[in-house]
Amino acid sequence: MRFRVGMRVAVAGLVLVAAGCGSSEDGPDAGLEKFYSQNVTWGSCEGFSSGQILAEVGMQCAKVTVPVDYSKLDGDTAQIAVSRLAASGAKVGSMLTNPGGPGGVGLTMPVMFAKSEVAQRFDVIGVDVRGLGSSTPKVVCRTPEEFTAERTDLDTDMSPAGIAQTEKEHRELVAKCVERTGTEFLSHVGTVDVARDFDVIRAALGDEKLTYFGVSYGSRLGSTIASLYPERIRAMVLDGGVDPANDSMVDLELMATGFQTAFEAYAADCAKAADCPLGTDPAQSTARLRGLVNPLIERPVPAGDRQLGFMDAQSALLNSLYSPLYWPDLTKGLTELTQGRGDTLIATADLFASSEFVERDLQMAVLCREDARVTDRAEAAAQDRRIRATAPILDDGHGSDQAPLDVCAIWPVPAADKAGQDYTGLPPTLAVATTGDPATPYQGGVNLARALGSKLITYEGVQHGAAGVGIACVDEPVTRYLVDLTVPQEDLRCAAA
């Protein structure tokens, strides 16, 4: 669907999770002993993704072996790439992390803790989940050249011929996924598979219980781990949380609302300046935005020796709403657009199109495995209309009573069921939610905390995720919980000083 193509779903975690259950006993599951008892051999990160960055902060890398199919323990195995920022002080244990996505590159995530007390007391572990980055096998559907070509493929023609062409492209993409990855592995890249991998990694590292920090989709992974292995958890922080009970289509529409709200916050801030490219009346900002961006569908503008088209402009816009840190560059890019240039916006689109943040093929494989599948064109169009009404910043002016079925509608492996939501035996956990989070709206974090019985830290701001980024009123209670297991006596609420 065009909304999903044009918008970076990368950190949202809008997925259903696969069915499955793990043992709640503290020992290894039957038949998994050889995986749980393996030795992790740490060494150089040369040859791993982002190896130079990891080396610069003194990190080490290794691989952990897991079964591809946990129902066939003597079958094929996968190698999960892990990184370690070793504890610099008295060590509590290991802390496994996940940056979201699904498909967020994980080996560099420990870097965000490098100057914190958490890194003094824990070996902070980054993980490229199965199918991603330096882990093998890897999910591969598109070549870099094919990714680049997709950035100019608008799919805005809603005539019968246009819909047929878009669906033909989707079938071709699915065929490439099957050819380059295989249906067997595509059937085993779901959240439950990754949750089981994390339990194997925990045991292989020598930790009796898991300490975990997950953001965005990482909260969906965390709640899945909590449902599978509640008694094997020591501490768990889930930031930018996703309601574990939500159907993913509900999440997608909530996400649209979140991005519209974040845009309105950006526009109000921009309007304080007389030279704001959206004008000084925030009420007119969405209309002014669409007046700048939608013409790019027919008439791209120069961007250095290239051209800025609609898809790249929309990508730059939406990704810039993840944090106020990106707002100045967005203003610069929109100002250039009023002058008929796209240099800054295409540079922003380039940045977020790179695999430095999210690997799109794995993301697609997980979303299509776990999303509710829309197989009726009229239903797809109705959802499209609801999203456009809720978030007019996403309206390209090409709505219709029909819409093409997306890739997930014809995905070559069966859809997964939801995981269980029984958290009996789970120790106290901690959730963090931001009131103006565009990608995982605040209520999802509230519902996640309620489901897990977590204490909730509410941060009043407009950004995606709030822990570990230098906000003292969030980081201090998070650190005390992780290190000392000191749980806040009540829910907390704070804003930046």
From TrEMBL:
Pfam families membership: Abhydrolase_1
Signal peptide range: none
Residue ranges constituting the AB hydrolase-1 domain according to the UniProt record: 96-464
MF terms (GO), sorted A to Z: hydrolase activity
Domain of life: Bacteria
Coiled coil (residue ranges): none
InterPro entries: AB_hydrolase_1, AB_hydrolase_fold, Serine_prot/Carboxylest_S33
Presence of the UniProt keyword NADP in the record: no
UniProt keyword list: Hydrolase, Signal
SUPFAM superfamilies xref list: alpha/beta-Hydrolases
UniProt similarity note: Belongs to the peptidase S33 family.
Protein name as it appears in the record: Alpha/beta fold hydrolase
Organism: Nocardia acididurans
